[in-house]
Specification:
The structure holds 2 protein chains of 2 kinds. A 6-stranded mixed beta sheet of chain A has the order 6-9-10-3-11-12, with helices on both faces. A 4-stranded antiparallel beta sheet of chain A has the order 2-1-4-5. Chain A has a two-stranded antiparallel sheet with strand order 7-8. Chain A is built from 9 helices and 12 strands. The two termini of chain A are about 30 Å apart. By secondary structure, chain A is an alpha/beta fold. In chain A, helix 6 links the parallel strand 9 and strand 10. Chain A has a single domain, classed as 3-Layer(aba) Sandwich (Rossmann fold). By secondary structure, chain B is an alpha/beta fold. The termini of chain B are far apart. Chain B has 2 domains: about 260 residues, no CATH class; about 55 residues, no CATH class. In chain B, about 20% of the residues lie in helices and about 40% in strands. Chain B is globular, with a radius of gyration of 21 Å. Chain B is built from 8 helices and 22 strands. In chain B, strands 1, 4, 5, 7, 8, 10, 11, 13, 15, 17, 19 and 21 form a 12-stranded mixed beta sheet that branches. Classes of the chains: A alpha/beta, B alpha/beta. The interface between A and B is medium-sized, with 27 and 24 residues. Chain A: One of its GO terms (molecular function) is ATP binding. Chain A: InterPro entries: AAA+_ATPase (IPR003593), ABC_transporter-like_ATP-bd (IPR003439), ABC_transporter-like_CS (IPR017871), FeS-cluster_ATPase_SufC (IPR010230), P-loop_NTPase (IPR027417). Chain A: Keywords: ATP-binding, Nucleotide-binding. Chain A: Belongs to the ABC transporter superfamily. Ycf16 family.
């Protein structure tokens, strides 16, 4: 599904990613763990196509297509979804309009018919109910005045609507209390299946109790320094990143 | 025939020729008003940028256009913009057109100034200050007609459309309507003004409003400026708000080559409220100037001003806002914000807030922001699959929506919202 080979990237002339090799097969959930400043967020932004990151080497393919050659909206349309660490507030843009515009843009790109306001509302209500989100959230400005938990739930709602084939969850657990964490995790777990992969980027092991990964990779200094099964996350929780650094 | 005089001389020349034929020529008080205004205009002429109040707006292209007085054909049936309520008054080239207007059965008086001029002694000219504002002087010197509305005490006037149409003619023409709006105690009215003209028309629309909002009365004044692309509009509004009254002005500048929207509001009685909000939507080559002068002259009054400007191509926006808090105006609550969204590196916005505060118990704030479309917001939309052009459009619309959402009156808000959407759809 997602194949990263020798990926190097710079931000403002500073090399952050120093040769990432990673493969996430269809249907698997992989976790990337690492301390602050290891390049976790840079990796998620490079994969989703944010400006300001210069790719200096390597390649990324998504279903065999060159992901790095695509505009951010093409990546979304082809089935890649980035759940933001800090969801952006859009004053004056109603959440319902935003969600419908996004859903229809993606549907159009996939050759599916667009939904009118009524059809959209029906679909949105089902998703809201499943995620235990108040319908009132549709009427508000996108993320405007939302609590940290509400913003993350809104991210998961977007994912549930857009039905991506691959989700990148960038520190989705930050700022969540335990109840919100469960709801968000349930939302991700509900997507699990042979047609859905995810890259869960996190500093802490906590989230991985709820979203159990197939593989865990440790990112340090812009490289994957260790990979293993879910037990690696537990081990990191006990010994900390310093032990990995010493081993690597 | 000699060369057509231009500039101030052209208008003074016209006044000399028309003096005896203008409405009210036989009324001594009108004659005196016009003569004083002509003197004031002769002294001031068209303001140059050396005059502080006109520092950012150069009227040379208006002065040099060589206008004729309007010679519109009375029997033509021009296309009218959509109506927002039942009542509508239509002016073509500054002249009232009863045949196109609908004012029957209203619970208040709607008259044409030309017809009702004699009764306006003491009212016409009570607020306008031609000695200080040359365009108001020009208007006073040459006005032919206008709207006179008087809403009696306690009457809810509903929605009244004021439509101003400029027409295309061989030579550019100028018209200077004078509108008198009076709301007596506890009355209310929503006045929705739409000014427009055919694509190829070139004219100067120079209206002056004298607005009296009585004790506890509420006037919503939505001004939708969609003048022809080569036209000029120089509008001056004078409003006086009595105790507990509310004047809610929203001006949308979407058309014209050059526009000046100048508003003078006097909060004359305690606990009066005024909103002066607006949006300026500028395409390549357009110039829009909003200048507000607000006098807090009584205690416990509140004022809100938010102006938003979107600039494309080589356009220029100006905002000048002066708030004068008089010594008696304790517990004044004033707020002024000017925000601009620059969509082109060639666009320019000038912003000049001015606060003069002579009372000591006052809450007054002002601010200005100038920026481009936010990169994080744009990326967020694109990361959700929304193509870049559509994402940009959504963010511009959001910026403008916020401006219009502050309008209290539902009909006016809907009318302004539709005009904003229409503008954006035409340029996007």
């Amino acid at each position: 599904m997602l194949r990263i080979e020798g990926l190097t990237a710079e931000v403002e002339g500073k090399q952050i990613l120093k040769g990432i090799d990673l493969e996430v097969p269809a249907g698997e959930i992989h976790a990337i763990m690492g301390p602050n400043g290891s390049g976790k967020s840079t990796l998620s932004y490079v994969l989703s196509g944010r400006e300001g990151y210069e790719i200096t080497g390597g390649s990324v393919t998504f279903d065999g297509r060159d992901l790095l050659a695509m505009e951010p909206e093409e990546r979304a349309a082809t089935g890649l979804f980035l759940a933001f660490q800090y969801p952006v507030e859009l004053p004056g843009v109603g959440n319902a309009l935003f969600l419908r515009t996004a859903l229809n843009a993606v549907r159009r790109a996939r050759g599916e018919p667009e939904l009118d306001a009524m059809q959209f509302l029906k679909v949105a209500r089902e998703r809201l109910k499943a995620l235990q989100i108040q319908e009132d959230m549709l009427k508000r400005g996108v993320n405007v005045g939302f609590s940290g938990g509400e913003k993350k739930r809104n991210e998961v709602l977007q994912m549930a609507l857009l039905q991506p084939r691959m989700a990148i969850l960038d520190e989705t657990d930050s700022g969540l209390d335990i109840d919100a964490l469960k709801i968000v995790s349930d939302g991700v777990n509900a997507q699990r299946g042979p047609g859905f992969s995810a890259l869960v980027i996190t500093h802490y092991q906590r989230l991985l109790d709820y979203i159990v990964p197939d593989r865990v990779h440790v990112l340090m200094g812009g490289r994957i320094v260790q990979s293993g099964g879910p037990e690696l996350a537990k081990q990191l929780e006990e010994t900390g990143y310093a032990s990995v650094q010493a081993a690597a | 025939m000699t060369a057509h005089p231009i500039g101030a001389a052209g208008f003074l020349h016209r006044f000399d020729g028309l003096r005896a034929r203008l409405p009210g020529a036989r009324l001594p008080w009108i004659q005196a008003l016009r003569e004083q205004a002509a003197d004031a205009f002769r002294v001031q002429g068209f303001p140059t940028r050396r005059v502080e109040a006109w520092k950012y707006t150069d009227l040379r292209q208006v002065a040099d256009a060589g206008f004729d007085e309007a010679l519109s054909a009375v029997d033509s049936a021009p296309a009218l913009p959509p109506a927002h309520g039942g009542a509508r008054v239509v002016f073509v080239d500054g002249r009232s057109r009863p045949d196109l207007s609908t004012v029957d059965g209203l619970p208040y008086a709607v008259e044409s100034l030309a017809a009702a001029l004699e009764a306006q002694e003491g009212r016409l000219g009570s607020l306008a200050r031609p000695a200080e504002q040359p365009m108001a002087a020009l208007n006073t010197m040459l006005f032919e007609d206008g709207l006179v509305v008087t809403v009696p005490a306690g009457v809810a006037g509903g929605v009244l459309d004021l439509v101003s149409l400029g027409s295309a003619s061989e030579r550019p023409e100028a018209f200077h309507p004078r509108h008198l709006i009076r709301l007596e105690a506890g009355a209310s009215l929503t006045l929705i003004e739409t000014a427009t003209g055919p694509e190829d028309a070139r004219y100067l629309h120079n209206p002056v409003f004298e607005i009296e909002v009585g004790f506890g009365a509420t006037l919503t004044h939505a001004r939708i400026q969609q003048e022809a692309p080569r036209a000029f509009q120089l509008a001056t509004v004078y409003a006086r708000v009595e105790k507990g009254g509310t004047y809610d002005n929203f001006t949308l500048n979407a058309g014209a080559k050059l526009v000046r929207n100048e508003i003078h509001t006097l909060l004359a009685g305690p606990a009066a409220t005024c909103h002066m909000n607006g949006a300026q939507l500028l395409r390549d080559g357009q110039h829009a100037d909003t200048t507000t002068v607000l006098d807090h002259a009584a205690p416990d009054c509140a004022s809100r001003q938010t102006y938003k400007t979107v600039l494309m191509g080589k356009s220029r926006g100006v905002f000048q806002g002066r708030i004068h808090v008089h010594q008696v105006a304790q517990r004044t609550d004033g707020y002024q914000m000017n925000q601009a969204l620059l969509l082109s590196p060639e666009a320019e916005i000038d912003s000049k807030p001015q606060l003069e505060i002579y009372a000591d118990d006052v809450k007054c704030s002002h601010g200005a922001t100038v920026g481009e479309i936010d990169a994080d917001q744009l990326f967020y939309l694109r990361a959700r699959g929304i193509p870049e052009a559509r994402a940009r459009a959504m963010l511009v619309e959001a910026f403008l929506t916020e401006a219009v959402e502050g309008v209290q009156d539902e009909t006016a808000r809907a009318a302004l919202g539709a005009a904003v959407t229409g503008w954006w759809e035409a340029v996007a």
